[in-house]
Amino acid sequence: MSSAFMRMRSVMLASAAVLVSVSAFAQTGPQPSLPAVTVDAPQQQRAAAARQPQRSAARATRASRVRNPAPVAPQASDQARGPSLTVLTVQQALRDIQQTPGGVAIVPAEAYKNSTVANTIKDILDYVPGVFAQPKWGDDTRLSIRGSSLSRNFHLRGVQLYMDGIPINTADGYGDFQEIDPTAYKYVAVYKGGNALQFGANSLGGAINFVTPTGRDPFVNGVSIDGGAFGFRRLQANAGGANGPWDGFLTASTQATDGFRDHSDGHATRVSGNVGYQISPDIETRFYLNANEVRQRIPGSVTKASALNSPETAAAGNIALDQQRNIDTVRLANKTTIRFENTTVDVGAFGLDRHLMHPIFQWLDYRYQDYGGFAKVTDDRNIGGFRNVLIAGVNVVNGQIDNKQYANVAGQKGALLSSSIDNSKNTSLYLEDSFYFLPTVASVAGTQFLHATRNRADRFLVDGDQSGSTSFDLWSPKAGLLWNIDPTWQAFGNISRSAEVPSFGESSSGPGIPFIPFTSIRPQRATTYELGTRGKRPDLTWELTGYRAEIKDELLCLYSAFGNCNVTNADRTVHQGIEAGLGIAFFKGLFDAGPQPDKLWLNLAYTLNDFRFDNDARFGNNQLPGAPRHYLRAELLYKNSNGFYIGPNLEWVPQAYYVDSANTLTTEPYALLGLKAGVDNGGPYSIYIEGRNLTNKAYIASASIIDRANAGSALFEPGSGRAVYAGVKARW
After folding, report:
1. Over 487-524, what HEC string results?
2. Which end of the chain is more exposed for a tag (fewer CB within 10 A), N or C?
3. How many Cβ atoms are within 10 Å of 337's Cβ, its own excluded?
4. SS (HEC) of 454-465
5. Where in the sequence is the domain holding 304, given as residue range(s)?
6. How many structural domains comprise the chain?
7. pLDDT tens per residue, range 571-602
8. Burial of 587 (0-12, 13-18, 19+ CB in 10 A)
9. Rg (CA), the chain
10. Which of 389, 369, 365, 368 is nearest to 378 (CA)?
């Protein structure tokens, strides 16, 4: 029995013990009523808010299904926290994120978890404008925000992923989606570009934070079963509760799929949990556990003709080498929150052990050990009669990779080909101040400083010593205005800088660090201009943002072969676009004209992408490859107050996009039709059935990027064919 399996079994047994313990103490006494979310005069209203039933709060959240922040009138000294001090409720997260003068979004679990199969990050972010997420195989997804990481053919870069504020990305910047469990979260926060300052604004795409529930949330106990096309099946369960100052929550899921394509089967078991303790009414500490065991075969990229005419066919080389991406992960963390009259302090630390077993062109055996901590101070008070919100903090993310690469002999380890110890250290300090010089208008200014080092110690010297080190010191200032036009409507604008440091794996051409001082790889820098508006009213939600990012030294796969990414700095590039979201009710009271009439609800998310080289010496003003110019996601649902809903949806890419910098080869446009129906009234039971790609359209979901392609270039990932899924959930 493998050590990885033994370790995972131990984690599962420990998690089961915690699950039993959580359920037990949840039933030993009544759950205390703690302060609910408020947006005004919180100190005086805690007692009244505490009497609000949890189930009513859950129904209010379900009914709103908010994806963009709902503006509220700002109030000074708004330091109230809800049931938990360490974890914000959805409403509190909306209140906090709305103070950002730029593109941000909150996606509550009720917006996707009960009405879709919720299998990948695409299911979460489908209706967030500016986000392009396309599954490749299994849980792996190609994700880009505002054109970040367009040329990244493997793994993720350009967007920082967090789970409860704990980094998912490796210390040198890489990320994967196999550790993301969409069933585990109560909401997801999206910070686009430089708006992710508090997480360290060193990436063009920004940051995404996945937030798990606590034992003080409503409906902490539950079980769900999902199944459908291509052999997909999943069992998920969660339990939690509170007893006096203690609370706890644990969720676990196990799933498997045969896969749409050949050689794309996989299975995964994921566990997340936390235990909190209220030391006093104003001090709370919380411990987190996250563990994952993922086994996934890789079907690989194929030619355009194969993707469109034989989409189920895997790349022959992937089968011959039995290519896979397998991950074992254990993550532990702590967060402590201390509340004063006008100030809240958050401090925490984390540690991560990850083992990547990745037979591809070589057999990659990587062990990651990441660790770090953070401290954040939020001060919200009146100064001279004017509201002022000051946020300051520090993030430390360090890590080591024990890196071994072997020859891949039909999926088995062959001779050792390279070995090194790679160390990354990152320290970021940030400061942001929002000063309301008018009751409804704030000026926002801030900056972030990043000090990063990279060091490689080569242990395989038969090909020479590839050791080396380098360091980076980068500033990312920002300034903006936020105008609360009325309690339901905001306008904003900002100018921000971002800086992105190269990672160890930027070059696949050799084992050496591609950015040690005597090479040309430099950090990517961008200046982004942004202007927009957002709002939420009873039958209308909207967001509209325009932006332009002027980038120097963008990290791109300018010189590549066979779909591998050899990163080089472009000279100058431009990313600009429009992000538009709309939710609107039509024809209210069609069959039920009661206090809560039925209605037709239209939900739209449209993204315009204009990404180009800027007078490049080789590629002129060519379009940057990798993203569609237009991307539309839309659904029209009939909704009844009894919880029944039904309606069609559309995913539309009306124009093909290039897959090479020379602009010689494109994908194909496509339109996918879907339909879903179900019942979810906010109560203990929900059920859904969902059909995807009902016309069985053969299309290209994702593509790898090279400098110059031809018809025989194996760069394309086919999308899945017609699929039907169904699921049932119970919660209490």
Report:
1. CCEEEEEEEEEEEECCCHHHCCCCCCCCCCCCCCCCCE
2. N
3. 22
4. EEEEECCCCCCC
5. 3-731
6. 1
7. 999 999 999 999 999 899 999 888 899 999 99
8. exposed
9. 25
10. 389
